[in-house]
Every structure is written in C-alpha cells, then in structure tokens.
Amino acid sequence: MGRHDIDPGRGQESRLYIRLQPNIRCLTPRLARFRGNASCGSHALRTFPRKRGSRGTRTGGSAVSLTLIFGRDDAARLRFAISPLWETLAALRVALEPERRPYHLPWLDAVTADLDRLDPWPLYLLSPRRGWTPDFLTPSPEGPHAGIAGQLAAVRATPAEQVAREVRRSLTDRGGQVPESARRLLDDPAATRDMLADMLADCWRLLIEAHWPRLHDVLHADMLYRTRVLADYGLERVLSDLHSRIGWTGRSLVIETHDSTRHRLAGSGLLLLPSAFIWPDVVAIVDPPARPAVIYPARGIAELWQPAHTRHFDALGRLLGRTRAALLESLAEAASTHTLARRHGLAPSTVSEHLAVLHAAGLVARRRHRHAVMYEQTPLGTELANGGQAGLLTRRRPTAASHGIASV
C-alpha cells in the first residue's frame, strides 16, 4: 500500500523493534511468544522509514510534504465513504499502541475479554506504523456505506499473485529484520489470504460489530457535516479542515510528512474516509492499483463512547433539565433519534419526547435525510447551549477539540 502515516513527533531511527509496556496486559499469549517474549506486556511493533524515494508508510521527520496534485476532473471525482474493514484494522492498532487509547478506553474495557480470544499477529505484522501495508487488506469501498460482507469478499477474491507480491513487500520494504517465522506467510499465498480474511472477520465480529451502530453514527455525522460545508463554502474549506497537517493550495492537497513526494491524481479522484480509530494520525494511500485516498480522524470522537459537556452544562441543566440540556448540546451536529438514544443510553421514545419539547421551544430544527429525521440546534439553541454566544456553521468548523486531536 502506498500509505503515508502522518505521525507527529516520532523518531527517524531506521529499525524494527518491539517495545514492552510493563503494566499493560498482553493481547494473547501466542502473540507474546511470537514476539519473542512470553512475559505480559503490550508489544508495539513499528517500522521506521528507510531511504528517501521509497514508497510505503512515511512518518515523522521534518516538515516536508506529500503533495496530491488535482487535475481538471479530480475535484468532481472526490467522494466520502465509510470502510468497516479499515475501522477493524485501525482498532487493532488502538489495542496495540497505548498512545492511541485515550478516547477509546470504554471500548477497550468492553472488548478486553474478546481480545484474549484473538491471535492476530499476522495482521499486526503486516500493518506496521511505518512500512508497507498490503492493499488487499483494506479494499476501497464501492459506495458511501460499504458493508463488511462485501469488503471481506473482496479480500477473499484477491489473486494469489497479488497477495504474494504485497506480503513480500510488507516483509521487506522496511528498515529492519522480521521474525523468521513470518516468512511462512509466503509459502502458500492463497492460504495466507484466506487466513487473513478469517482473522479480519473474527476481529470484526468480536471487536467492532456490536459497536458498529455507534461508530457508524459518528462517521456518518462527519460525512454529513463535510458535505454541508462543501455545499456552503466549497472544496477549499472541506480539504483544509480535514486535519491540522493537511492544507489546500488551490490545485494540490499538501500533507506534512517526512519525505517530499508528489503524486498526480490524473483523473482518479480522491476518496476521503473518516475514521474513529486513526487518531492522532492521518493516512494517505496513493499507489495503484488502490484508489487514492486520505483517511482522517472523524469529528466528535471525544464523545464517541460517552457524551462530553460544555462548561455551561450545569446552568443549562438547571434551566432545561439535565437530559434535555445534554440532548441540546449533542445537537451541535445533526443527529437522529436513534443516534442520540445510543449516545446517551436512553430509550428512543424518551429521546423523542424531549426533542418534541426542544423543537416546540425553537431550540432545535428537524429535517428529513433519506429515511431518517435529523435534528440540529437552531441559532437560538446554539446561542443558549454556548452561554449566550452566537454560533453559526463556521463556529462548528473542525477544531482540536472536535477531532479529539491535541494541538501541535
């Protein structure tokens, strides 16, 4: 995968290493044995960049850039999509890397027992933070809301020759040695492909499936917000707001990384994938046959697993009641009744009753989007929720807080 992981503040040392975090339980005993240490710990496997000009995951270093050059038709071929398989693979990295966990601790608590039932060391090995990740593990979504069954079918349909080529590159296009046992993945590429597909299916079933409605709500809300910004303010605002390390020059999307690379989209367009688990990174995929894509942290991950309140919440709660105040605050972004019910742990009927009161008071507006009714703060509701400060769409532009991204 021509994948560029933009990861601020990491070193440039060109080697493969295993870091043991002592006080954090290991994922599986078999994974610990594979990594060469049977003691309990969290093993962070990272491949650091090698030589200039090589493709793969590029991170850290000086403030140079990956430049995606738009041609005449590429802006018209930009689209958003959600990838269940990408979220599954990214979730595994959250489980592996402690620095990715702050916003996902409730999820980790819920899936801890299931992590012990998995032995996904080949997936960890083939998706290092820095290095080459096989394209076939995360096929591009065909539509805005791809299903897991279709994406797993695409993995299983990958030709054995492609599997061998991409696995070999993943094991060699990195700055250090891999365990000798990993070479077994090349003995039978078709069997390796089926094994990896089975592992992805197990990871989806045990780690993601039960939480997918909540995750999908956040990803879908991000897409709705950005398509609205696109309609109201244009392409420049959308692309400039994806991440603090992404900029738009008028013809090119510029992503800070450690290596200067230029890639012409040449009519292939650009796929934008919001992700709940990719924080704090942004990832670019540019090499064929994959479609060019940028994976960025979705808005609102800070309250993905538990609602976050503003500093005005206590006063607002005394005025409206705490439940209605919490619902009003959550509607800074459009959401449906069922989304709010999942987010706040309420029955949909209870949410509907409170929304009816807020709507009658002129604090929220409602509109139909496909088969759902979406609710959102009115200007009066926004002003009330923000302690008397007026707010417009521009006020809700992505910020460090809305991404859950620390300022850099």
Number of strands: 14
Proportion of residues in helical segments:
25-40%
How much of the residues is beta strand, in percent? 15-25%
User: Gyration radius, to the nearest Å?
Assistant: 22 Å
The description of the largest β-sheet is: 5 strands, mixed
Segments where pLDDT lies below 50 for 5+ residues?
8-62, 391-408
The SSE order reads EEHEEEHHHHHHHHEEEEEEHHEHHEEHH
Determine the mean pLDDT: 78
Strand order in space, largest sheet:
1-10-11-9-5
The helix-and-strand class reads alpha+beta
Number of domains: 2
First and last CA, distance: 27 Å
Overall outline: globular
What is the tally of helical segments? 15
Structure notes:
The protein has 2 domains: 3-299, no CATH class; 302-403, Orthogonal Bundle (Arc Repressor Mutant, subunit A). 38% of the residues lie in helices and 16% in strands. The protein has helices at 29-34, 84-96, 105-115, 121-126, 148-156, 160-172, 189-208, 212-233, 235-240, 313-320, 322-330, 337-344, 348-360, 379-385, 400-403; strands at 3-6, 16-21, 42-47, 64-69, 78-80, 246-248, 252-257, 261-264, 270-275, 282-285, 293-297, 335-336, 364-369, 372-377. The strands form 4 sheets. A 5-stranded mixed sheet has the order 1-10-11-9-5. Strands 6-7-4-8 form a 4-stranded mixed sheet. Strands 12-14-13 form a 3-stranded antiparallel sheet. α5 packs antiparallel against α7, α10 (313-320) packs across α11 and α11 crosses α13. The longest helix is centred in the middle third of the chain and has 22 residues, at 212-233. It starts with a strand and ends in a 5-residue tail after the last helix.
